[in-house]
Specification:
Layout lengths: L5 H30 L9 E3 L3 E7 L7 E8 L6 E4 L3 E2 L7 E2 L1 E6 L12 E4 L7 E2 L12 E4 L5 E2 L12 E4 L6 E2 L12 E4 L4 H10 L6 E4 L3
């Protein structure tokens, strides 16, 4: 049997340790790159100059992440139009691969210049928080084409000029108490045909006493 000298064995141990170290740090770097895609990780807060967002799910190279809209930071905002992604404020040629999944409590409250809010059909918004648009007295039209599930209490209370609300969602489970209180001009509700009766009842119960639901494709 071949004998292995102590020196050879020592070199073998050093080589093995070196290889394991390289593999460890390579793996760590890959994991960091995946969890910090575009420099953001879960819990990070950033702004686009108009609104503040919080990362609730980090994006990776393979999958988009998710954020909640925390608050409006510029009260001069006139319209909020959300497409597929949020633009990177540091590099306008790139986009953050992040979807807005919720709007937090009082996020746009008292934004006196805000007139329109729009989320397209590819957005993932599910929740409009309590008082999110309360007393936005110039809002006239709302489009939420995502799979909206909840409109919390007082969400649009005091939006006295609101006249039109469109949603493509068939998943609304809750329209909270006083969500449309003092929205006397709110009369037009456009929704999927199969939901006209149900949604009209829900919205009226939430304060939209004059609303009439119709098929959104009419």
């Amino acid at each position: 049997m071949r004998q292995i000298s102590f020196q050879h064995f020592k070199k073998f141990l050093i080589f093995t340790a070196l290889v394991m170290t390289i593999l460890f740090f390579s793996k760590t770097d890959i994991k960091a790159e995946e969890s910090e895609y575009n420099g953001l990780i879960e819990g990070d807060v950033f702004t686009d100059g108009w609104c503040e967002f919080k990362v609730t799910k980090a994006a990776t190279a393979e999958e988009s992440g998710e954020v909640t809209l925390v608050k409006c930071v510029n009260k001069r905002i006139v319209g909020f139009c959300y497409g597929d992604y949020l633009y990177d404020i540091n590099d306008t040629d790139r986009v953050y691969d992040y979807d807005i999944v919720s709007i937090e409590e009082n996020a746009f409250r008292n934004c006196s210049r805000l007139q329109t809010v729009q989320f397209n059909s590819k957005s993932k918004l599910t929740t409009i928080g309590k008082g999110a648009f309360r007393n936005c007295k110039k809002i006239k039209k709302i489009w939420v084409m995502s799979k909206l599930e909840m409109i919390e209490n007082d969400a649009f209370s005091g939006c006295t000029k609101l006249t039109y609300f469109t949603t493509g969602s068939k998943n609304i489970k809750k329209v909270g108490k006083n969500a449309f209180k003092n929205c006397k001009n709110f009369k037009a509700l456009a929704v999927p045909e199969s939901k006209t009766k149900k949604y009209e009842k829900m919205f009226k119960k939430a304060g939209a006493k004059n609303v009439k639901a119709r098929d959104m494709y009419e």
